[in-house]
UniProtKB/TrEMBL annotation:
Protein name from the UniProt record: Dipeptidyl peptidase 3
Cleaved signal peptide residues: 1-22
Biological classification of the source: Bacteria, Pseudomonadati, Bacteroidota, Cytophagia, Cytophagales
Keyword check for Methyltransferase: no
Keywords from the UniProt entry: Hydrolase, Metal-binding, Signal
Domain of life of the organism encoding this protein: Bacteria
Keyword Hydrolase: yes
Length: 725
């Protein structure tokens, strides 16, 4: 529930803003980010030479090659890289710790593929086995038809890697290869059968017959996560969290297990697959070292134990040991113990998120995908977000929510900006930009939480100029100028407030179950909306100027412009014509934007403007808009605190799901002219240990440049699960 992903506003607008960033209207050609360092050095040398012509001139300082950010674009995806500034200055022991956490993170990579769809590992291993034969045709053939087919297969393979499976990472709709089934067959028989992921006793012919519909039939497992109201969300979702189950059976199973009066409820279902045994009894297949996913989790545990041995602090070691225990026995009470210990580890410079964390992939919100984020604190950048976190109680006390829904004692909020070293599982290649954990409400209330912004990820994204969105969708020059001046800071502050204050705010009434129990399939969208609204409500508040984090009221205006433009217009580029909105973050933003637009219509708070056939939205009264944000926040907190399913459903279904087909068609046509991919992901840095004998004495950081090569490397090195689990 508590990840902030890139939005169309955050990425496609904000990446235009930084001075010194590369600019291009198309990004199929690699782009580099340009810094001012080289120009500054040359200017200083020239000035010195002019001042003292007769003095001996030192040899010119070699220019440092600019770091290439944008590597390639295909389908609706763009592949970037990010740097890890400050890594070289870390102590050798800290680097060693990060290396072990890096290995632990990647060792769980197979799990995410299998969780997303039961055939994903076999599909991925197939495209990896076929890759050499396809590359030979793509690069060495003179037959243009064959080259075109090879290009289409290569794009499909990259899409599988990007989405951790055969369903789109955001829409969760199945995508199929654009190459022909006949070409796929050619590749199969051009590849050594020993390299294909055959099952015992399976012939290549049978393998092909089994795999062909899995890849090419759009009606087989068409959606990984279905959120369409009125449907059986379990039966119509392809996610591998349930087998032979109906939604009614799942809900009845947990209704019997969950005690709503428990003040410290465990996260039921978080680490298991729900199936029926031979006697048709419902049972949980738990994910732990001796159970499902044991091969990968055993390796994760191996590296976590090595990390614990070089932990920075006793608190960090305790947290890592608790995580190991959880993976070894699969007990969710151990998961809670780990989260409590992790929250209290506040002095370590290094940190890791590792586990079954977010439930977006489960249509009912019980089961969580494996993910890991390995990082260390950016000391300087943390000052901004820490200033907000230190005032958490003030923000809670002055919130527009009802008094009985406010926390009387906000505890333990640790706010920081982190430098990401590597991400894995559900957080890679795509990535969040902010995280607030743990998700358990009672732990956040009693022990606190960690709220982070992924600093170097945000910086890389801002530097990789996307081009054109602002000019195309902003109404006038005043709006554009506000964005160019303040939108980058505004987006960072929005993320800070969303994570630090938003997710940590409010409380649930006694005797009311957790949101996943009460609000069900709408819980994630409502929670993201609630956190967004906290940020939106407070951005114009004089308190932020007093804290020194906001230099001008125009910062809030820039974010209001961006949020409304995104929620009502630009995020529609992420949908195909005719689709409704199902992804939680998209539902959240559309619901909020459409609600305030409708509620402010009488006073013309937000005006819909048509100019030369194009639609725009102009905010006429920012103060009244803030008031509307506050009203909606109060209602969302009430819904969450009281577990009002009917009201939550009504909000999402009324404002967050339906799409105006005429407006959608217009937005897609305008967007198509810009040649911009709406989604971004990253090639990960590589950590290489430097040893003296068996001892690691240092760790070298490398920056790979080829997305496919990295995916193939990961496939070889971290193949820790069978095709089917």
């Amino acid at each position: 529930m508590n990840h902030t992903r890139f939005s169309a506003a955050t990425f496609l607008l904000l990446t235009q803003l930084g001075s010194g960033c590369a600019s291009t209207s198309r990004t199929t050609t690699p782009t580099t980010a340009v810094t001012g360092a080289t120009t500054e050095v040359v200017g200083q040398l020239a000035a010195a030479a002019a001042q003292e012509e007769s003095a001996p001139v030192a040899p010119p300082v070699p220019a440092t090659p600019a770091f290439q950010l944008v590597m390639e674009q295909f389908a609706d995806l763009r592949i970037l890289r990010y740097q890890v500034p400050g890594f070289e200055e870390l102590e050798p022991r800290q680097k060693e710790l990060l290396y072990y956490l890096y290995e632990a993170a990647l060792s769980g990579r197979d799990i995410t593929y299998d969780q997303n769809y039961r055939h994903n590992l076999r599909v991925r291993r197939t495209v990896e086995a076929l890759w050499p034969a396809n590359e030979e045709r793509r690069t060495a053939s003179t037959n243009q038809q064959q080259i075109a087919q090879a290009e289409k297969f290569a794009t499909y393979a990259k899409r599988v890697w990007f989405s951790n499976g055969i369903h789109h990472h955001y829409s969760t709709r199945k995508f199929v290869p654009e190459c022909t089934p006949e070409y796929f067959r050619e590749l199969i028989f051009a590849t050594d059968a020993k390299k294909l992921p055959l099952e015992p006793g399976e012939s290549v012919t049978k393998f092909l017959a089994t795999l062909k519909p899995i890849l090419f039939d759009p009606n087989l497992a068409p959606k990984r996560v279905n959120q369409e109201a009125g449907k059986d969300l379990v039966k119509t979702s392809a996610t591998n969290y349930y087998e032979g189950m109906t939604q009614t059976e799942v809900e009845a199973f947990y209704r019997k297990k969950i005690n709503k009066k428990d003040s410290q409820p465990i996260s039921y279902g978080l680490n298991s697959k729900l199936v029926k045994d031979k006697q048709s009894r419902i049972v949980e297949r738990v994910w732990f070292t001796e159970g499902m996913y044991g091969g990968a989790l055993t390796k994760v545990v191996y590296w976590l134990n090595k990390a614990a041995a070089v932990a920075e602090t006793p608190e960090q070691e305790l947290a890592l040991r608790k995580l190991v225990e959880f993976y070894q026995i699969g007990d969710l009470k151990k998961w809670d113990e780990y989260n409590v210990a992790w929250v209290h580890d506040t002095k370590s410079r290094t940190d890791v998120v590792n586990g079954f964390i977010e439930v977006y992939g489960d249509p009912l919100g019980y089961r969580a995908a494996y993910e890991s984020v390995v990082s260390f604190k950016d000391l300087e950048a943390t000052k901004r977000i820490q200033a907000i976190g230190n005032e958490a109680q003030w923000f809670e006390d002055h919130s527009p929510i009802l008094a009985q829904h406010r926390k009387q004692n906000v505890v333990g909020i640790t706010a920081k900006v982190i430098t990401v070293v590597v991400e894995a599982g559900a957080t890679a290649p795509k990535t969040p930009i902010g995280i607030n954990l743990p998700n358990a409400t009672w732990i956040r209330k009693e022990h606190g939480s960690k709220s982070v912004q992924l600093g170097n990820i945000v910086e890389a994204s801002n530097a990789a100029e996307a081009g054109g969105m602002l000019d195309e969708f902003a109404l006038d020059e005043a709006e554009k100028q506000r964005a160019r001046t303040y939108a980058e800071l505004a987006a960072k502050l929005h993320t800070d407030m969303h994570e630090v204050i938003g997710h940590a705010s409010g409380q649930i009434n006694k005797g009311v179950g957790t949101p996943k129990e009460t609000l069900k399939s709408y819980a994630s969208a409502l929670e993201e909306a609630r956190a967004d609204l906290v940020a939106l409500y407070y951005l114009p508040d004089p308190k932020l100027m007093q804290l020194g984090v906001v230099p001008s009221p125009d910062v809030a205006k820039a974010e209001y412009d961006s949020y409304i433009r995104n929620g009502l217009l630009t995020q529609l580029v992420r949908l195909q014509l005719g689709e409704t909105v199902e992804e939680a973050h998209l539902r959240n933003r559309q619901m909020v934007a459409r609600w305030v637009f409708e509620k402010g219509r009488k006073e013309n708070v937000i005006e819909k403007v048509t100019r030369e056939g194009n639609t725009y939205f102009r905010i006429n009264d920012y103060e009244k808009l803030r008031g509307l944000f506050g009203q909606l926040l109060r209602e969302l907190q009430r819904i969450t605190s009281e577990g009002d399913y009917a009201a939550g459903k009504a909000l999402i279904e009324t404002y967050g799901v339906k799409v105006d087909p005429v407006l959608h068609k217009e937005v897609l046509a305008r967007y198509q002219k810009l040649h911009i991919a709406p989604y971004v992901g990253f090639i990960q840095p590589r950590l290489v240990p430097i040893k003296q004998g068996d001892k690691i004495v240092d760790v070298k950081l490398e920056y790979p440049t080829n997305f496919a090569e990295q995916m193939l490397e990961y496939g070889r090195q971290y193949r820790l699960l069978p095709n089917y689990n």
